[in-house]
Amino acid sequence: MRNWKYLIAAAAIGLAAFLLYRTLSRYSLEQLVAAVSAVPAPRLLAAAGFAAASYLSLTFFDYLALRYVGRALPYPKAALASFTALSLGHNIGLAALSSGAVRYRFYSRWGLGAGEVAKVIVFCGVTVGLGLLTLGGAALLLRSRLAVEITGLTEPAVIALGLGCLAVPTIYLALSLFVRRPLRIRRWSLEIPAFRLAIGQVLIGSINFAFVAACLHQALAAVADVAYLGVASVYVIANATALVSHVPGGLGVIESVVMYLLPQSDLIGPLLVFRFVYFLVPLGLGGILLAVTELVYRRRETSYGRDDQFAAKA
């Protein structure tokens, strides 16, 4: 089917709308406004600060990825492409396609081929997975009893899940030390990065999700007495669910999972604050950046085209 990508996107948006409706339908507009207003300004500012720190750490995903493909562009260029792509991709959904298209728009201008951009996208995707597993595994092991209360799993199951999460980045780092040839899985081939890059992936991936969890924690702490590691555990579960569903921005998925796992408090206000500072504000900034860069590059291309015509006539 030629239009399968569009059908998947439409299904994801439909699922997002249903989940969000199910989450918000029991509240009136006045209740929603009051819930958001109940979050103190210091908590709101702290959440915004952690969101900014997360997006800053995300820029290093691309910075490392460009070194992985042997095209070490200056950091400002990597940061521009990364923030613009991810601020839009987080909200559009199908992140590999949506953010990948924006990345290709930038990197192709700067000399990267389609294959190199594809490697950058895969490298960043692996970094996301490593960070999610590392933070999730650490949270499950360090606060296993809290994880039992939140998830309803038995303590042995929580510990086994935590160890399983940490096993993946450990194996990945071991492969980066000892494997020099590309790994082949059927028709797929994966070039394992050098150990220093692999360490960077695990560290920056974990730092990013630690900041996101801190952003959510600051919002939730306004109305509930919750521990940071408990929030980190919940966020890992919610984010993994959102990644699997490909719903735009995890819309409705994150809210539904968090409210299901932490039902003792009215969390809709803090969750809306989290969505505003982590998704909607970056979306607005990313849209502006994309529009501005498109105008700048079009003017440059038009100017170069006129110069070439003038030179040809001369």
Task: Give your account of this protein's structure.
The protein is mainly α. It has one domain (4-313). The protein has 12 helices and 2 strands. The protein has helices spanning 4-24, 29-37, 41-68, 75-92, 95-109, 114-142, 144-151, 155-178, 195-220, 228-245, 253-261, 268-313; strands spanning 183-185, 188-190. The protein has a two-stranded antiparallel ribbon. α8 packs antiparallel against α9. The longest helix is centred in the C-terminal third of the chain and has 46 residues, at 268-313. It is flat.
Provide the descriptors you would attach to this structure in a database record.
314 residues, mainly alpha, 2% strand, flat, two-stranded antiparallel ribbon, single chain
SSE layout and pairing:
Blueprint (H helix, E strand, L loop, with lengths): L3 H21 L4 H9 L3 H28 L6 H18 L2 H15 L4 H29 L1 H8 L3 H24 L4 E3 L2 E3 L4 H26 L7 H18 L7 H9 L6 H46 L1
Antiparallel strand pairs: 1-2
Helix pairs in contact: 2-12, 3-4, 3-6, 3-9, 3-12, 4-5, 4-12, 5-6, 6-7, 6-8, 6-9, 6-10, 7-10, 8-9, 9-10, 9-12, 10-11
